[in-house]
Structure formats: C-alpha cells, structure tokens
Design goal:
Elements lengths: L13 E2 L2 E2 L3 H8 L4 H15 L7 H14 L7 H11 L8 H11 L2 H6 L5 H14 L3 H14 L3 H17 L4 H11 L6 H14 L8 H15 L15 H8 L4 H14 L3 H12 L4 H17 L5 H9 L6 H11 L10 H10 L5 E4 L2 E5 L1 H8 L5 H10 L7 H5 L10 H9 L8 H15 L5 H9 L8 H11 L7 H5 L7 H12 L2 H12 L4 H14 L7 H7 L5 H15 L6 H10 L4 H11 L7 H8 L17 H17 L2
Length: 663
C-alpha cells in the first residue's frame, strides 16, 4: 500500500496550510483500524490536501497511494477514498494541476472497473460514477454498468448504478440509446419505488421525451411507497460521529439522504417546468412521513430563489410544519420562511401561532456573542405581518433586546409606528464611546429612518455631534436625518460640517431634504462628481438625481459620467441625467445596456422609471419584458444565491408595475 511513500520528498511539497510533511501520516491514517482515526485522516485530506477542491503538488503525489488503499479489501471505509479520488480528478475544464490530476486518475481508471463488483457496499456505491467519469471507453463502461445492474441485489447500489446510466447518457450522446432504454425500463414496474424515482430523475435530465405523462402523481406515489417501506424514523440528524469536518457534514445531512437526493435530482432536471415542480413539492409537503416533508422544506428554497410563480400553496404547507413535534422539521420550516420575506405571508398564521406559544424562541442566545432575534419572530416580521409588533415591543422593553431587532422593523411599514418611542430610547442609550457603537446603533437608525420618525432627531444628531469613534455609523445617521426632511432643520449645522468629509454626498443630499437650498449643496455635489474615486462620483450622481431640475449645472458632469468605465457609475449618472434634464434620448442606450449587462442594475433603473411617471415610456418595454420573464433576475443557475434574492426580485417586479402604472 505504502511502498515508496518514504521516498517521496513531501517536505518540498505543499498543501493549503503549508508544508506537506504531514501527508504520509494522513495517508496511513486512512488505513487505520480505528474509525475515528480514519475519519480524522479523511478530514485532513479534504481540509488541507484537497482544500475546497484545490489541487496541489502533494495532491498529485497522493493519487497512487489512494488507489492502492482503495484496492485493498482489508482497508475499511474505502468508499470514502474512491469519492476523494473522484473529487481530485473531477475538474472537467481545469488546466495546470487540475488537468494533471484528472490525467492521473484516468490513467488508473481500470481500478474502478474492478471495484464495481467489490464486496464492500460503500465501494460499490462509489465506483459506478467513477467509471463513467474516468474510464475512456464508452462501450466498455456501458457494458459494465449493465452487468452490474443484472447482478446487484442492494437497492442503494442499484440506485447509484441507475444514476450513473443517466450521467453516461449525458456524457456520451452517441452511445446513449441503450442507456436511455434501460432507464425507461427501470422507471416502471416491477422495479421498486426508489429505483423508479432514480430512473425518472435521470430521464428528466437526459431524455425528457421518455417521461410518463403523469410524472408528478407517479413521483409522489413512488415517494410514499418508498417511505412506507422504510423503517420509521424522525427528521433528526444521524450519527454523533467525530468532531471533524467530515463528521459535521455527515450530521448536517438529512436522515434520509437518499430520498432527499432522489427528489432533488428530479427537481433539478425539471428546471423551468415550474408548475410541475410546485405540484411535486406540494405532494412532498403533504406526505404522511415527516422525513419526506423535512426533505421537501429544505429543497423548496432553490425553487423559490430561482423562479417567479404563485407559491401560496407550498408556502402554506411549509407553515403547517411549524406545528410539528420534530425540532428539526420545525427549524427547517422557519429557516426557509425567514428568507421569503413577503412571500411568507401564506404561512403568517402558523408563524404567529408558533411565536405566541413559544416565547422561548423570541430570542436566540449565543455563547460568547450578543443575543439575536429568534428566527420565528424574524420570519413573522419580514412577512410584513403587524402581529409581530407587540412581540417586538415587549422585547424592546427588556434590558437585553436583540441588537439586530431594528433591521426587521423596516419590513413592517407603518404598522411599526408604535415601536418608534422605544427605538428612540434605545438609540439614546447607546454609549457613544463603546467600540460596538456601530453594531448597536445601525439597526436602530435603519428602523427610525424607515418609520420617518422625526422625533428621533435629537438622538440621531447626538451621534454626529459627539467626537466620533472610527466605526461610528455616521452615514446611517446622515441618511436618517435626510429621511426626516424639514423636521430635522436643527441638524443643518451638523450636516454642513460634513460637507468636506467622506460623507459629503450623503450630507449634501440630507441638507437638500432638510433645507431645500440648492445653492449650498450643488457646489459640493459638483466637486464630488469630479472626484478621482468612482464610488464618490456614483454617490454624487445619485444625490444630483434627487435634486432634479435644480441640479442643471451638473449636466455636463453627468453626461461625462454616463461614459464611465464602471457600470454602476454609468447607471447612476444616466438616471440622474434623465431626472435633471427630462431628456430621455441620451440616456436610453446607457440604461438599456446596463439592464442587459448586469441584472442587478434593474431595480435601480426600474425605480428611476417609476419616479419619472409618463416620461419613462421609452423604456417601458424593459419593464414589460421583466414582468413576463419566469426566472428571477437574481437567479444564478448552479449557485445558491443569497437569502434576500426573492425579496430583491419581488421589489423589482413591484417597481416595474409602478413604472407601467404611472404612464
């Protein structure tokens, strides 16, 4: 197994954390009789030698030894070693070390053919995909898969073989017919429900024309048949394991990982067939089996993040999981709902019931960190439901209200007005010399700004007039004063004092909102528009746009900025130019280009269109097209996306509707 390992100059090689001197120990650990030592060794391989998919010279040097380990029947957990080899050689388009790794694994791919019939279940599950990926003989690969399907008796391995057939059909289109025929046969009786689900998922991916017309009812029925055959289990983490990366990932897996994978594969393959995916999700969420429902909750987020649709029914069913006895199912539902913001409204009654019955969930306490707002309360507030207000009020009355509470107030709109006095008091109590002043004050400033609470001027002004620590939330304070408008007139001297600072553009914008005197703020914004810093120029353009026609002296600067290299500067300048001049002709090409080049500019452009009313007609076709596009503008196929993606997309749609309604 380890012949020649001591002749390798490991000290001259590297991995993610420096010298590769410890790699021989990791390789030997993979062969240990101690399960914990094996897991720690595998953790070290992924954590250093193959860190986040990277390939180093030490990674390449490991390949022969990993193959030797995988081929030894007396080594335990060899399935994990095969999976590691697949990952090391799996970068299809990489060059340099990645290409070398792929070549090294391909050169020994005959080993995978031998392992396909290994006595070890884990090895037999890992080997088929390795065969398809690395053995460069399609006819031989297909023959091996067909042979293994004929003789294999373990359903888990059969599912892996079936999925490998689908991978083969995608990889080798010229040889796909036989694989697709076999997949079609496996999708029907007398095969078991798990194998049929696997075949349907792969057919949806590589041969959708071979799918049954009643795909969704069939898939839901098969899921329930499969669950009925499975031993009763709750939706809880599996296995305590060791405290390693591999162990933690194992504990995060669903208790029915195979079932989750089967349905996720089908969802992914259905892609833009959103109605079918919603119906499938509803079927999963209506299952009598809590594990199936838990899997459905976790996979729903990908659908919500990528596609625009009416999600009222599945969201309501996710809300119903909040009454489940299983902690993990309830926590999964809350986790998904809190990222839906307004789209979570169909689950608001369930959220309110949970919040009302479980005050212990109102605040989440962390070891060594400040408390944060509990996820059920956060989800209820983000949904815009005013029933969150009394709970937030009670928390604000307490001595240790979560510091992040203010960030959620902004989603409640005018209904949160009763919270303003308590928010003001908390802002006034922030110790200005505290190193945490920004963390403590920023959420409160955001909330008071959203509420337009002009009575908070003294508390906000206090942040600007005190000798400021380095991380003071000055920008947030300035924007809050601007939101208060003329009622914040007493803050004018403090704002003027910032006109020569890094906050000049924001201070000028706030001063305009407070006093309305363009002669004071326009010179400042013109100066900022000529800055060497693109970010300052962009902020100046945004404020000039808010001035509108009184900023006509800035037209030359704005015209110049519409040709800037940075997309966001061009976009801000074009919007401002239109608002100031009223002339659409010179900015239409700029905004059309930005809209197409980077979808994240669309909310900014749509807000500009909505504010211009009938004058925005020349770009109404963009808004109309957006409203008929099924994919969210924030969607990035293959990427997880951030938790606010649906919220930002729904805001874009609302702005597009507002622009069209104003015409």
């Amino acid at each position: 197994m380890f012949t020649g390992i001591d002749e390798v100059d490991w000290a001259s090689m590297h991995h993610a954390y420096g010298s590769a001197e410890n790699v021989p120990g990791l390789l030997r650990g993979l062969a240990s009789a101690d399960p914990a030592e094996r897991e720690c060794a595998l953790d070290g391989m992924y954590g250093a030698v193959h860190h986040q998919g990277d390939v180093y010279d030490s990674t390449l040097a490991c390949v022969p030894f990993l193959f030797a380990l995988a081929a030894r029947p007396d080594v335990q957990d060899r399935g994990g070693i095969v999976e590691l080899l697949v990952s090391i050689g799996g970068e299809e388009d990489g060059d340099g070390a990645y290409a070398q790794a792929r070549a090294a694994v391909r050169a020994r791919a005959d080993v995978f053919a031998e392992l396909a019939g290994d006595a070890d279940l884990g090895v037999r599950r890992a080997a088929p995909k390795a065969l398809v990926r690395f053995l460069p003989e399609p006819a031989r690969v297909l023959g091996l898969l067909q042979e293994r399907i004929r003789v294999e008796r373990d359903d888990r391995v059969l599912i892996t073989l079936t999925e490998s057939l689908g991978l083969f059909a995608r990889r080798y289109p010229a040889h796909a017919d036989a694989a697709v025929d076999l997949l079609a046969a496996q999708s029907a009786p007398p095969y078991g429900p798990g194998l049929r689900l696997a075949a349907l998922g792969r057919l949806a991916d590589c041969a959708p024309d071979r799918l049954p017309a009643d795909l969704v009812p069939t898939a839901v029925r098969l899921l329930r048949e499969r669950s009925a055959r499975r031993s009763p289990e709750v939706c809880e983490p599996v296995g305590a394991g060791t405290d390693t990366l591999v162990g933690r990932l194992r504990r995060l897996r669903p208790s029915d990982e195979e079932g989750s994978h089967l349905l996720r594969t089908l969802h992914t393959a259905l892609d833009d067939r959103v109605d079918d995916r919603i119906a499938l999700l509803v079927g999963q969420l209506s299952s009598p089996d809590s594990t199936d429902r838990c899997n459905a909750v976790w996979m729903s987020g990908a659908l919500f993040r990528e596609w625009r649709a009416d999600y009222g029914e599945p969201v309501g069913l996710i809300g119903a999981q909040l009454a489940a006895e299983e902690d993990r199912l309830r926590e999964a539902a809350v986790s998904v709902l809190q990222d839906l913001f307004g789209l979570a409204a169909p689950a608001a009654d369930h959220l309110h019931a949970l919040v009302g019955s479980r005050p212990d969930l109102w605040v989440r306490r962390w070891e060594g960190g400040p408390p944060t707002l509990g996820a059920p309360v956060r989800a209820l507030a983000r949904s815009g439901d005013p029933r969150a207000v009394p709970v937030l009020a009670r928390l604000l009355e307490g001595p240790d209200a979560p510091d992040d509470l203010g960030r959620e107030v902004i989603h409640l709109g005018p209904a949160a007005a009763p919270l303003a006095p308590a928010l003001r008091r908390r802002l006034g109590a922030v110790a200005l010399d505290s190193p945490d002043v920004s963390r403590l004050a920023t959420p409160l400033l955001l909330a008071l700004r959203a509420l337009g609470d002009a009575q908070a001027v003294p508390e906000v002004l206090r942040l600007l007039t005190h000798p400021r620590p380095h991380d003071a939330p000055t920008g947030y304070a300035v924007r809050a004063l601007g939101a208060f408008g003329p009622a914040a007139r007493e803050a004018a001297p403090a704002l003027r004092a910032l006109l020569d600072s890094e906050y000049a553009a924001a201070a000028a914008g706030a001063l305009w909102a407070v006093e309305g005197d363009a002669s004071v703020v326009l010179p400042v914004l013109l100066r900022e528009a000529s800055s060497t810093d693109a970010g300052r120029r962009r902020r100046a353009a945004e404020e000039l746009g808010r001035l509108g026609p009184p900023a006509r002296a800035a037209l030359p600067a704005l015209r110049r900025m519409t040709g800037a290299e940075w997309l966001w500067e061009r976009t801000a300048a074009a919007c401002a130019l239109w608002r100031v001049s009223g002339d659409a002709e010179p900015v239409i090409p700029v905004l059309r280009s930005a809209w197409a080049e980077n979808p994240h500019t669309r909310p900014t452009i749509a807000a500009c269109l909505a504010s211009l009313g009938p004058a925005s007609h020349p770009l109404h076709d963009l808004a109309q097209a957006e409203l008929t596009t099924p994919r969210r503008h924030t969607a990035q196929p293959g990427a997880h996306g951030d938790h606010e993606s649906p919220k930002r997309d729904e805001e874009l749609l609302e702005r597009c509707r507002a622009a069209l309604a104003a015409s």
